[in-house]
TrEMBL record:
It comes from the Bacteria. It holds the Pfam family DUF4295. InterPro entries: DUF4295 (IPR025379). This is DUF4295 domain-containing protein.
Length: 50
């Protein structure tokens, strides 16, 4: 399983955001690509489950 990275970033407007980086395997080639998302820290676990 690929490594998942979460980095906590500054607060803006009272909401703290985190940058979530996931390794996603391509169905066609089998190569891994990285998908980055900015999500509120309260939604990090839900994002990683997808």
């Amino acid at each position: 399983m690929a490594k998942k990275v979460v980095a906590t970033l500054k607060k803006e407007g009272g909401v703290t955001y985190a940058k979530v980086i996931k390794a996603v395997k391509s169905e066609k080639t089998g190569a891994y690509t990285f998908r980055e998302e900015m999500v509120p820290t309260t939604a990090v676990q839900d994002t990683l489950k997808k």
